[in-house]
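Checked the freezer inventory, then went back to the computational side. Two predictions to log before the end of the day. The first one is the construct we discussed on Monday; recording sequence and tokens without edits.
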Amino acid sequence: MNDTLISLTDVSFAYTADRPVLSGCSFQLFAGERVGLGGPNGSGKSTLLALVVGLVRPDAGRVEAFGRPRASEKDFYEVRCRAGLLFQDADDQLFSPTVAEDVAFGPLNLGKSRNEVRRIVADTLRSLGLAGYEDRITYKLSGGEKRLVALATVLAMRPEVLLLDEPTAALDEAATERVTEILAGLPQSMILVTHDRPLLDKLATRLVVLKDGKLVDL
């Protein structure tokens, strides 16, 4: 049985013709892996995650996820239901008036009942130390609180794969330790984009780095 969850083959991408981001980049995520993805700022780490879920499309190459090639918007809708992307900027992820509404949005769209969604919201917030935040106004939260709520919106969907772009950014030491413990206890395969070396030391089973538009194993 093929245990490849995500596969990029010879993928190239540029936002403008004179500034290529990825150039013939290939990558595979296997079941059970937690891959740490490094590289300088602007090297294309966030772009690679966006390509996996179809937020941008490659100029060349092939994207496969969960055993199928993915090219159309319909293809990627299924991927987004099964692979949860945590954006680098929490403000890009949060759009509802309250915390509970933001965390409930994904499960509701997956067809969960309202009673089940209420349980998911409460359990997910509690796991992140956010019990009692349900009615808090999202835009009034601190940067660290927004980061945790953004992570809650991803975890609430119970995805099969986690694509985490700087999951501990803006968190204090206690919250960072809490998130690290939670991620360490999850069964999902992950791609972790982070400069947090202790997080990688704790979680990553493999490290890769983006260099000149390609991925290199460390």
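The second is the one RB wanted added to the comparison set:
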Amino acid sequence: MTAHFRVDVADGVATITIDRPNVRNAITLGMWEAIPDLIERVSHDQSVKAVVFRGAGERAFASGADISEFERVRMSAAAAEIYGKVVDAAITAVQACPKPTVAMIYGYCVGGGLGLTLAMDLRFAADTARFAIPAARLGVVYGLTATRALVHLVGPARAKDILFSGRAFDAREAAEMGFVNRVVPAGSLAAHTYNYLRRVAANAPLSLRGAKLSIQGIVTGELEIEGIRRLMGDAFDSHDYREGVRAFLEKRPPRFEGR
């Protein structure tokens, strides 16, 4: 356990749990600081093929940044700038994770907690989930890294609506605007998420990495064409490519090794 996070690995899936259920999993500055190291750990763990983030319990994914510490850690423009850089570094680290990432969202997903889910590849929500970015009601400007991700995901007009109003919206509306990929009854969300991730984890790691790099580059306009071409070549020269072709011809599930 690290700074109110738990990390568990099973069946190729790492679960990172935000573990402050008594305050609806509000995220402290220390927790933001810990996220890049957590991502580095799961990125280098060869047993991990995919990553899921969730909040402890079912009341909240995260109710946002821990406002109770704002008078100490965001008491001035200078302090707020430092705080913002820490949050941006955490979100950037999640975005850069080479393995597929999914947010499993129960209950409240607000402010910084919502920003954290924006860094992930996919978002699966319980039908009881509630979302909001109340930055305008606190007198702060929402972080640029998270805002950029929000615009890419839902478009500029919807992003303006969310940020201008600070209003809450439910899982159904979140799905309609493209913010969440799945809405599942709360009692079935964990099973649905892990069944999906086990399927992802069974696929070739080089294929997953290549797909993620290509899509991120297309979205951001920072496509590293030569790097992706090298990855394509590595994939064709890999054990997993030969195994995938053999398994297809032999009509059996492939056994990928990530090499």
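For RB: The CA atoms of residues 50 and 199 lie 10 Å apart. The longest strand covers residues 5-10. Let me know if you want it refolded.
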